[in-house]
TrEMBL record:
Pfam families reported for this sequence: UPF0227
InterPro entries listed in its UniProt record: AB_hydrolase_fold, UPF0227/Esterase_YqiA
Gene3D superfamilies found in the cross-reference section: alpha/beta hydrolase
UniProt lineage: Bacteria, Pseudomonadati, Pseudomonadota, Gammaproteobacteria, Alteromonadales
Residue runs in coiled coils: none
Protein name: Esterase YqiA
Highest taxon in the source lineage: Bacteria
Length: 192
């Protein structure tokens, strides 16, 4: 199974989400591809993701993740906790700190949902922090230095022991993401 985990205020309809779904359908149709719309509440999102993982494990499927931004933060926790391999795209390292600035009303342009970020959401996020990567062989981390939302250097520090691709320039969306899908699938060990 490949579980694609989108970022904050995003959706499977994001550019990366659509590109990944199309690529998997074309080149790896035999791989179960799961790309849920995550609830805005972090605990509800993790309940959904953990349910999907448990279902895959019951079917005997290997676990693979692609996580973008906040999805990368969650994918780190899932890979460390449940096993499997994770590809992280410009992952958030300390999103609970960013949530302080985001407290209040939020709007998801993909789902048109309006919701509130409350102070308790910060502590909920901290529950899923992987302060130290214990299984670096499980991770392939793609970063662009031009990320205008997150400081890529924090991810370099956290994932220094993992397979890293650091590209100069770019932005938070990871420009040229579609060009990385072959190497992503190679890392995830999908058969050609």
């Amino acid at each position: 199974m490949l579980l694609y985990i989108h970022g904050f205020n995003s959706s499977p309809l994001s550019d990366k989400g659509v590109i990944t779904a199309d690529f998997m359908a074309k080149y790896y149709p035999e791989v179960t591809f799961c790309q849920p719309q995550l609830p805005s509440n972090i605990q509800d999102a993790m309940v959904l993701l953990e349910h999907i993982i448990q279902q895959a494990k019951m079917k005997g499927e290997a676990l693979h993740y692609i996580g973008s931004s906040l999805g990368g933060y969650l994918a780190s926790y899932l890979a460390e906790t449940y096993g499997g391999q994770a590809v992280l795209i410009n992952p958030a390292v300390n999103p609970s700190e960013l949530f302080e600035e985001l407290t209040g009303a939020q709007y998801n342009p993909y789902t048109h949902e309006t919701y509130q970020i409350k102070p308790e959401h910060k502590s909920q996020l901290i529950e899923y922090n992987t302060a130290v990567i214990l299984h670096p062989e499980r991770f392939f981390v793609l970063l662009q230095t031009g990320d205008e939302v997150l400081d890529y250097k924090l991810a370099v520090q956290k994932y220094y022991c993992c397979q890293l691709l650091v590209q100069p320039g770019g932005d938070h969306s990871f420009i040229g993401y579609e060009n990385q899908l072959r190497s992503i699938c190679d890392f995830l060990q999908f058969d050609h």
